Amino acid sequence: MDTTSHSSDVKALAQEVLAALPQPYSEDVIDEVFYAIETDPRRLRDYEALCANLGKTVVNNWLGRWIGIALGKVGEQQVPSRKSSLIGSYSLLDTDAKPVERKPKEGEALKMMADYFFDNRSRLPSDIRKYRELIVELLMEGLSPEEAFAVAPRRSLIL
Questions:
Q1: Which sign, positive or negative, has the C-alpha torsion 149, 151, 152, 157?
Q2: Given a cut of 80, is residue 12 above it in pLDDT?
Q3: Average pLDDT score, the chain
Q4: Per residue in 63-81, is it b (16+ CB within 10 Å) or e — as a string?
Q5: Who contacts 14 (Cβ-Cβ below 8 Å, separation ≥6)?
Q6: Nearest Cα to Cα of residue 152 among 35, 22, 58, 31
Q7: For 19-65, how does the pLDDT look when each residue is reduced to its tens digit (9 = 90+)?
């Protein structure tokens, strides 16, 4: 299954819901996006389909991340959800994000993967090589090598 298209599906859902919300956005925008999904039958079906393919934790984390990226904000405080039952908690988006570095192209991602692998080979799972393509995709989506190597084995179990 193509994880890149699923990540873009999560991003598209986040962008669609954000566009429909009144502005200016509050620091509780993540909770408001999930509530908007929960109360719209079509969006809820889309969300549930993504959860069935990727897992609820992955979808929820990526929705929160895409919302933060879209708004140029990061959350430094986790709070319980007051509106949506789809999430237990969320980050208050109350801090301006650091400038986003450009995402690596495939060649750069391959080099990043190889460098991280050789520097950390002794600590990595013995079967990590079978996640090579997924790790490259995650690096190209903007994850750090440490995050990509940690997420790839878990994400492949969901797929």
A1: positive
A2: yes
A3: 87
A4: bbbbbbbbbebbbeeeeeb
A5: 33, 63, 66, 67, 70
A6: 58
A7: 999 999 999 999 999 999 999 999 999 999 999 988 898 899 999 98
The structure tokens listed for 66 are 């895409």
pTM above 0.70, yes or no: no
> How far apart, in Å, are the Cα atoms of 41 and each of 33, 44, 45?
14, 5, 6
User: Residue 107, exposed/middle/buried by CB under 10 A (0-12, 13-18, 19+)?
Assistant: exposed
Tokens, residue 26: 């509050």
Residues 6 or more apart whose CB falls under 8 angstroms from that of 43 comprise 13, 16, 17, 36, 37
Q: How far apart are CA 53 and CA 92, in angstroms?
A: 27
Distances (CA, A) of 15 to 3, 7, 66, 72, 89: 18, 12, 8, 13, 20
* The pLDDT value given to residue 4: 47
Q: Which amino acid, one-letter code, is at 113? A: M
The Cα–Cα gap between 65 and 91 comes to 10
pLDDT tens for each residue of 89-118: 999 988 776 665 678 899 999 999 999 999
